[in-house]
Amino acid sequence: MKRYVMPVILAGLLSACASGPVFPPAPAKAADNSDWYYLLGPGDSVNVFVWGNSDISGSFPIRPDGMMTMNLVEDLPASGKTPTQLAREIEKILARYIQDPVVTVIVAGGVGPYSQQIRVIGQAAKPQALNYREQMSLVDVMISVGGLTDFASGNRASILRVVDGKPQQFTVRLEDLLKGGDVSANVDMRPGDVLVIPESWF
Questions:
Q1: Is there a domain that residue 60 lies in?
Q2: Does residue 142 form part of some domain?
Q3: Percent of the residues in the chain that have a pLDDT greater than 90, as a whole number
Q4: pLDDT: is 24 or 174 the higher one?
Q5: Alpha helices in 20-79 (DSSP H)
Q6: For an engineered disulfide with 113, which of 25, 41, 59, 150 has Cβ 3.0 to 4.6 Å away?
Q7: Spatial separation of the C-alpha atoms in residues 29 and 60, rounded to whole Å
């Protein structure tokens, strides 16, 4: 989904939530996640180790344009790749200068590409974009954003999720989960989910 379309969609979601939940409940278990791999994104930092060449190795950031620069390697596209894919590309470039280079890339920190981040908007204590982690659940997300505000209508919250290329929206029961301790209200999250928490009517 285009990034410039997202603000318009989210604005519509927040206003639509005011009329009450009209969406199906979110599935407790998300689709099979075995094919998910962490992808690098702008703002990530990577440690690059070149075996036997400590002067080339180091820690390097991925710039806002998705590119990275390291010793002997300039403007290499890094965003959207796995660390292993990036390592293989660095090896190909370094092969011009070093015989049979062996490279390892380790993620030092970051939130991944926008397409895999989980965004929390509305009446969360700390609305923000989060790095998706394997087997991440709704309660994990709420812990990260500090819970609900006093003005939140938690049981009218919803998740916007792209399924097979099409946006879908599901209701979630945050108030039952956080204040009532109803574990059945906890659901799996998926990369790219947007959690919308509307304001209470009164």
A1: yes
A2: yes
A3: 69
A4: 174
A5: none
A6: 41
A7: 37
Residue 120 lies in a domain: yes
Say how far apart CA 128 and CA 53 lie, in whole Å: 39
> What does the pLDDT look like over 132-162, one tens digit per residue?
988 899 999 999 999 999 999 999 999 999 9
Could you tell me the two tokens for 85? 């894919």
- C-alpha atoms less than 13 angstroms from C-alpha of 115 in its C-beta half-sphere: 14
Same-domain status, 32 and 127 = yes
Whether residue 137 contacts residue 63, with contact meaning beta carbons closer than 8 Å, is answered with no
Domain count, the chain: 2
The whole domain housing 93 covers 45-109
E strands in 78-150: 103-109, 118-122, 128-130
> Are 88 and 149 in the same domain?
no
Q: Which of 109, 130, 158 is the last residue of a domain?
A: 109
Letter for the amino acid at 27?
Answer: P
Enter the tokens of residue 176.
């039952």
Residue type, 102: V
Residue 56 CA to residue 37 CA, distance in Å, equals 27
Q: pTM for the complete prediction? A: 0.74
Contact 85, 160 (CB under 8 A): no
Spatial strand order in the sheet of 194-197? 128-130, 118-122, 194-197, 157-163, 166-172
